Amino acid sequence: MRRGALKFIILVAFIAAAFVAARELDLGRYMRPGELSAVVDSFGAWAPAIYILLYALSACLMFPGLPVTFAGGIIFGPLWGVVYVAIGATLGASLAFLIARYMGRDWVESMLHRGRLKELYDRTEAEGWKIVAVARLIPIFPYNFLNYAFGLTRIRFSHYAAASFIFMLPGIVAYVVFSSSILDLLEGRFSAAFFIGLALIVIVSLIPFVFRWLKRGV
Predict the structure, then answer these.
(1) Do 149 and 100 meet the contact criterion of CB atoms below 8 Å apart?
(2) Residue 163's closest CA among 135, 193, 200, 196?
(3) pLDDT tens profile 190-214
(4) What is the pTM of this model?
(5) Cα angle 53-204-144, degrees, rounded to a multiple of 5
(6) What distances in angstroms separate CA 69 from CA 120, 137, 213, one per listed residue?
(7) Quick one: residue 113, left, alpha or beta (phi over 0 = left, psi -120 to 50 = alpha)?
(8) Which of 79, 174, 179, 191 can bridge 70 by disulfide, Cβ–Cβ 3.0-4.6 Å?
(9) What is the pLDDT of residues 148-179, one digit of tens each?
């Protein structure tokens, strides 16, 4: 068996084993906003660092990112919530990317032949950040899957990490600002953060439609 194929098999086995272990140990319960809030708060001054690490770990284990993002807004508020979520999401995306790149990329390249597929694959080296930008701005693309998928391409890591950080920010700001108002909402109060966050979520949700409209107009 070729080394590249073996590394790819190990990568798939790692992801599958991590997912099964997380399900069997019910680690997902710590990713729920209420549970995660209690865990993070128990670390006091270390809470931001612990939250960022938990976010990165959840991304590598392919847990849904939205509950963890909501927890960031609830725990840290709209300002620091955005900062810590952005760092955690970028760190998690980068770690998953590197795992895929160094465990699976050789196999993918060995399977490519000359032709349109090879040409498309080569173009990602030059246009990779644009592809990342579109994928991060359009919410219908799954965050966790893309982290590993991009690691199998020829996109430069620096371009990937920078584009991921910048173009994930609109969605992060929208969901964190909205989630920071949840505790007030549960008490029957509608804060400014609720209306601002709701408006931002609507705007972010409209991005795919605007993108398609602009693409048709080109």
Answers:
(1) yes
(2) 135
(3) 888 889 988 998 888 888 777 777 6
(4) 0.75
(5) 35
(6) 33, 16, 29
(7) beta
(8) 179
(9) 888 878 888 999 999 999 999 999 999 999 98
